[in-house]
Amino acid sequence: MTAAAPPQVAPLVDGRGRAVTYLRLSLTARCNFRCTYCSPAPDGADEGLRREEAARLVRLFAGLGVRRVRLTGGEPTLRPDLAGVAADAAATPGVEEVALTTNGQRLAELAAPLRAAGVSRLNVSLDTLRPERLASLAGRAADLARILRGVEAAAAAGFASLKLNAVVLRGGNEDELGELCRFAWRHGAVPRFIELMPFGPGEPVPIAEVKRLLAAQGVRLEPDATRGWGPAVHMRGRSGAASGLVGFIGAMSESFCEGCNRVRVGADGALRSCLGGRDRVPLLPMLRAGAGDAELAEAVRRALRDKAERHAMGDAARGPLLPMRGTGG
After folding, report:
1. Do the bridges between strand 233-239 and strand 161-168 make them parallel or antiparallel, or are there none, so unpaired?
2. DSSP 8-state class, residue 195
3. Are 280 and 271 within 8 A, CB to CB?
4. 143: number of CA atoms within 13 Å, CB side?
5. Beta strands in 62-116 (DSSP E)
6. Domains of the chain
7. Contact 321, 262 (CB under 8 A)
8. Any bridge partners for residue 13, and if so which?
9. Sheet containing strand 281-282, strands side by side
10. Residue 312: its pLDDT value, please?
11. Given a cut of 50, is residue 6 above it in pLDDT?
């Protein structure tokens, strides 16, 4: 049952009038993978937000009109208190949905507890179905057999939505997109193909080309009006007797900024108004110094008032991007 709505406040909007209803909350900068396209961070990186601090920030944002919370990392399943953090978020008045993004390595044992804790939607990163490629893309710690068992456990756990995310890299995995679609559909999941963003090395494959590759690999695409909370655009795919939705996220070639409804808090407890921005608002030091909710809310509103109309991820003149790891995408 959805928690009761909090008292009405002025809606949270950015400087362009876009309503912000979606919080992406990174719980750790640590990760057990070394994905080539993700900015590195040391294994011993500070966890940042404690459980009670994460809960307070979720309450703060819910009070400002946020209705969806996605728990990210790094790799959030490295947090031993993850189920508790998820349960806190799910119990927050006004929060309608708690989602999680994971690399799937620990999902076989955690899928059922996370579903019981109130996580309703799950995204699993799965860039390849070939073990040797996974080792090349994500490091030797990545175990494809374990990840696939995790996907099976997630499919059995009863999540309202299961999505399999693949970052498409030229010369890396663009020849198995059709295979990834068919695998996802067999498990009741939605495959999603994501353009490489400039947080690490590699050559992107534009979404228009991804669609042509899918057609060449036996997936016929048709228009579909399905939209979710995030930026993905969907089409209906069919390959032989198999069919299902296919999602596309083209941050570089098909900018989705005009409909942005998201705000991010990184593993360091700092607010990032834009994934492609360079600015941070240090909420965690304010929180630990005793700032009240009104002071924190004003800091959030001020940062969003200054948010640009569009991201500038490709503009090297503005300086380096903030690390992806610890921001959670």
Report:
1. unpaired
2. E
3. yes
4. 10
5. 68-72, 97-102
6. 22-318 (3.20.20.70)
7. no
8. 19
9. 220-223, 233-239, 242-249, 190-195, 161-168, 121-125, 97-102, 68-72, 22-26, 262-265, 270-272, 281-282
10. 55
11. no
The amino acid sitting at 235 is M
Eight-state DSSP code of residue 5: P
Three-class SS state of 176: helix
Q: Return the bridge partners of 24, or none.
A: 70, 264
DSSP letters, 109-123, are HHHHHHHHHT--EEE
Residues listed for the chain = 329
Q: Inform me whether the pLDDT recorded for 174 exceeds 80.
A: yes
To which residue do tokens 């200054």 refer? 306
The three-class DSSP label of residue 52 is: helix
Question: Tokens 């031993």 map to which residue?
Answer: 80
Q: Please classify residue 75 by burial: count the beta carbons closer than 10 Å to its beta carbon, then call 0-12 exposed, 13-18 middle and 19+ buried.
A: buried
Strand partners, 235: 223, 246
CA distance 128 to 148: 11
- 194-206 mean pLDDT: 83
CA angle 61, 103, 250 (to 5 degrees): 70
Q: What is the pLDDT of residues 259-313, one digit of tens each?
A: 788 899 999 999 988 765 667 899 999 999 999 999 999 999 999 988 766 555 5
Strands 233-239 and 242-249 come out as: antiparallel
Element (H, E) at 262: strand 262-265
Task: Say if residues 81 and 100 touch (Cβ distance below 8 Å).
Answer: no
Cα–Cα dist 266/303, whole Å:
14
Hey, is 303 helix, strand or coil? helix
pLDDT tens track for 61-108 = 999 999 999 999 999 999 999 999 999 999 999 999 999 999 999 999
Instruction: Please name which of 166, 163, 168 lies closest in space to residue 213, comparing C-alpha atoms.
Output: 168
Q: How many CA atoms lie within 13 A of 119 on its CB side?
A: 27
C-alpha–C-alpha distance, residues 19 and 201, integer Å = 33
pTM exceeding the 0.85 threshold for the entire prediction: yes
Confirm if 119 and 86 have CB atoms less than 8 A apart.
yes
Half-sphere exposure of 274 (CA within 13 A, CB side): 27
